[in-house]
Amino acid sequence: MIIPYNCTGEITLALVFKLFYSLFLFVGVLFTAPAILGLEHVDDTCKSLLLKGRYNATGHSVADSSSSSVTSDLRIPQVIHHGMIRLVAVVGERHSGTTYLRNLLKANLDPVSHFVRDNFCSFKHFHQVKRDPCPDLNLTLAVVIFRNPYDWAMSMHQQCYCRKTNQEYQAYMENVTFSTFMTRDWIQDVYSELAQPPWRGPLTDPQSGKSYYSHIMQCRAIKIRSQLAIASWAPHVEFVRHEDILHPRDAHRWLSRLIAKYKLLPSKSRTLRPIFLYKGMEQERSFNAGKAMSESVWFNTSLLETNKTVREQVHLVTKMMDQTVEVQELCYGYLMSA
Ligand SMILES: *[C@@H]1O[C@H](CO)[C@@H](O)[C@H](O)[C@H]1NC(C)=O
Ligand SMILES: *[C@@H]1O[C@H](CO)[C@@H](O)[C@H](O)[C@H]1NC(C)=O
Ligand SMILES: *[C@@H]1O[C@H](CO)[C@@H](O)[C@H](O)[C@H]1NC(C)=O
Ligand SMILES: *[C@@H]1O[C@H](CO)[C@@H](O)[C@H](O)[C@H]1NC(C)=O
Ligand SMILES: *[C@@H]1O[C@H](CO)[C@@H](O)[C@H](O)[C@H]1NC(C)=O
Q1: d(CA 330, CA 323)
Q2: Do 161 and 272 fall within a single domain?
Q3: What pLDDT, on a 0 to 100 scale, did the predictor assign at position 331?
Q4: Is residue 96 located within the same domain as residue 169?
Q5: Given the CA of residue 175, which atom of ligand 3 is nearest to it?
Q6: What is the DSSP string of 264-292?
Q7: Which end of the chain is more exposed for a tag (fewer CB within 10 A), N or C?
């Protein structure tokens, strides 16, 4: 296949080409998008709150076969007069793609004009409330990322990042099955136990006096509500699904919209820089969107069909999750039938 492009920034284009080449390997092997329910029935308040930050997502992100001019599609619009936003603050639950999103923004926004960080009014994984350490909200764009509850819960079971020390973590997680993990008290979670009202867990630990949640999905639901509520006190908030920016084509679409909407200054590179590596971490990790999607139960439903354990896990997540939040309030209709 010949991909036409004019020769500006060959290196970036070569990388884009390389990534797309590997992604094309997936074309033909179709991902089946899970049934996305509820989207047609979201009420108007919900729509105006959430969909303002959402491009017309398809719910799945397979490179389509009509992409003969991939590289020119990935051109980033150039903005001459940029707006007020100086700080872009990424917010999201663990395993929602915050590191990926931060790197994507960092790589594609002009570093002199926009500082991108993992902190809004608190570190990205905490409940955010308007309080003293908030940056100047008029100059800040908060970007909140959500991920489907299925991949999310399974990732949390792999590594919950929920204890202060490794030792406590080991003690808490040793031999804990998915079902136990999903149903037991969600207590002493480092990113939730300090939640302020009204986001506090409904239960109280008599020993420490700290609040906790009946189970992990209740904690997730309340945190999602707190994240949606940011729009009620911060003037510039965008909501995005992890699923909608994983594929470079989707990432590009979303970023282009974001740049135009907030008059952000893009980086000097004239095309999207997709993320291959997580930099700035103790260990560089490579990132491969195709691989991530093939291992995701949300994208690759054959995992569900061929594996009974996965089916049971999906069933349990559906049962435990707060469907009002996941399907209606989140507007995206995160629901799979197992
Ligand atoms: C989304 O895009 C599809 C095809 O591009 C179009 O048919 C559909 O009406 C769009 N939906 C919304 C809500 O804009
Ligand atoms: C933020 O913008 C609003 C509306 O333009 C203005 O009323 C307010 O004074 C600004 N706040 C700060 C701290 O600049
Ligand atoms: C966890 O499982 C391993 C292997 O079956 C066993 O040796 C160990 O004692 C178990 N630990 C706990 C805390 O049950
Ligand atoms: C879906 O997962 C199965 C099992 O791991 C794998 O063999 C297959 O290649 C995946 N499908 C896609 C489209 O990635
Ligand atoms: C089924 O899924 C579980 C959970 O992801 C995994 O541990 C197991 O290896 C899978 N089984 C097969 C046969 O792929």
Answers
A1: 10
A2: yes
A3: 72
A4: yes
A5: 1
A6: PPBPS-SB-----EE-SSSS-EE--HHHH
A7: N
Q: Indicate the pLDDT class of residue 77, thresholds 50, 70 and 90.
A: low
Contact 15 CB / ligand 4 (< 6 Å): no
Structure tokens at 274: 């997709």
d(CA 35, CA 28): 20
Whole-number pLDDT of residue 309: 96
CB 317 within 8 A of CB 149: yes
Measured from the Cβ of residue 58, the count of other Cβ atoms closer than 10 Å reads: 13
Q: How far apart are CA 126 and CA 111, in angstroms?
A: 25
Tokens of 335: 């629901």
* Residue written as token pair 């999905």: 217
Q: Report the predicted TM-score, pTM, of the whole model to 2 decimal places.
A: 0.79
Whether 296 shows a pLDDT value over 70: the answer reads yes
Q: Are residue 1 and residue 100 in the same domain, yes or no?
A: no
Distances (CA, A) of 55 to 47, 160, 245: 12, 30, 10
CA torsion 96→240→126→196, rounded to 10°?
-140
Query: How many structural domains comprise the chain?
Result: 2
Compute the distance from residue 324 Cα to the ligand 5 centre, in Å: 30
Residue 119 pLDDT > 60: yes
Strands 211-212 and 115-117: unpaired
Side chain identity, residue 61: S
Locate tokens 């994208």: which residue?
299
- Calpha distance 304→311 (Å, rounded): 5
Interval between CA 199 and ligand 2 midpoint (Å): 27
pLDDT value at residue 244: 83
Q: Same structural domain for residues 97 and 222?
A: yes
Nearest C-alpha to atom 10 of ligand 3 is from which residue? 175
Token pair 């008599």 in the structure block, residue = 206
DSSP 328: I
